[in-house]
Design goal:
Elements lengths: L16 E4 L5 E3 L4 E3 L7 E12 L2 E8 L5 E3 L3 E4 L3 H16 L3 H4 L1
Antiparallel strand pairs: 1-4, 1-7, 2-3, 4-5, 5-6
């Protein structure tokens, strides 16, 4: 099996939310047969991450809560929390206020 290029893997972590972005059906690469899988637009929590052999090619596989088998990460979009941006902005603003004197604020 070839080495997996991690630069295309979206820095997936256990606990991430994954939104399904495909609606063409799932194929079990182990037996080359259709299998059940998430529907387009559904969101799942990642419980484990591994590298799988997909017809001789390495792929990043996501194990999702509620599913017994794993799925290739290319079928999912990582949902990134936007609250982190607001929290970081609040922390920066608070730090800036601490460096000002009272007369500048009033």
């Amino acid at each position: 099996m070839k080495r997996l290029d991690l630069s295309s893997c979206d820095d997936w972590r256990v606990g991430d939310l994954a939104e399904c972005v495909i609606d063409c059906g799932w194929i079990d690469s182990g037996v080359d047969q259709p299998t059940s899988g998430p529907l387009r637009g559904s969101v799942w929590r990642v419980t484990e991450i591994s590298v799988a052999d997909h017809w001789g090619e390495p792929v990043l596989a996501l194990h999702l809560a509620g599913w017994a088998h794993r799925f290739g990460q290319v079928g999912f979009r990582k949902l990134r929390p936007t609250a982190d941006i607001g929290i970081a902005a609040d922390a920066t603003f608070t730090a800036a206020l601490k460096h000002r004197s009272i007369e500048h604020i009033a």
